[in-house]
Design a protein that fits this description.
α4 (about 50-65) packs antiparallel against α5 (about 90-105) and α5 crosses α6 (about 105-120). The chain is globular. With about 210 residues, it is an alpha+beta fold. It contains 8 helices and 7 strands. The longest helix has 16 residues, at about 145-160.
Length: about 210
Amino acid sequence: MNAVSPAAVLGVSRIENDPAISSALVDVLCRAFDRDPHINWLIRQDAGRAGAMAELFQLLLTEMGGELHATADRQSAALWYPPGNSPDWGAQTRFFLRFLAIAGPLRALKRGVDLKRMDRQHPQQPHFHLQLLGVAPEYQGSGHGRALLEHLQALAQASGSPIYLETSSPQNVAFYARHGFATTAECTLSDHLRLWSLAWQCSGINPLEHP
């Protein structure tokens, strides 16, 4: 008997233009990333923190042009950019203008320099860029993250493209390593944020090339 994939069991599918679902997934991601070093490095750390985090995820999910996928129970979601798809100049400009409030003006300018540095580390050949993968805390360890990741890996395998991501969490590095990802770079950004770059190669394609 063939094993049923976690993605099939949990019903992973793409979410398109549904404000109600997007709003629910923003809440899931806020809870999933509440202690994430990278997200907290990005957003303001004052009384406006909770609102800033929600606005950041709302902006990423609905206005930056990526593909949003979620499990059928809406307790986990992932956002990625397929090969050849990335935010255009207009989207990037709108993001930065709103990021001034999300981070605070001085923090936004400082983080903007590091974000450009991160962009330059992306692979040169076409690839899937996994921007976010989050699971509601009460569902972590139940296969939701695996389901989303295996769904993405199946898409990448079908298109013959690698997957690239960045994380600031050692636990995430270990999670992705269990699913065939290799660390390709490590760097330290402003305020001592440690960041790992990871990549997954489907079989039969050339190794990733980095700047």
